[in-house]
Specification:
Largest sheet: 6 strands, antiparallel
Helix content: 25-40%
Structural class: alpha+beta
Shape: globular
Number of helices: 2
Number of domains: 1
Order of helices and strands: EHEEHEEE
CATH architecture: 2-Layer Sandwich
Radius of gyration: 12 Å
Length: 90
Amino acid sequence: MFVAVACEFANDDHRKAGYDLLVQYGFRKVLKDAFESATLSEAALGRLKKDLDRIADSYDGIRLYQYPVEGTLAITILKEKKWRRLIVKV
């Protein structure tokens, strides 16, 4: 599955930990705070979300853009330490 990650970390320690984590999962940096992977599995995505949740605090914002999910685009948002998913339908 294709996954793009946009992240806004509140401090440099979280930013470094987050960037290092994304690289470990095979993401490549495409913009200042954006990463992409075209080869991430569902299982790896689940682990990534748990790992990101561990390093982030309530001041950090992370958005995952996933395609395909149920044949469409899904946007998963970590805000204030809670994950929320939005399925985009045509």
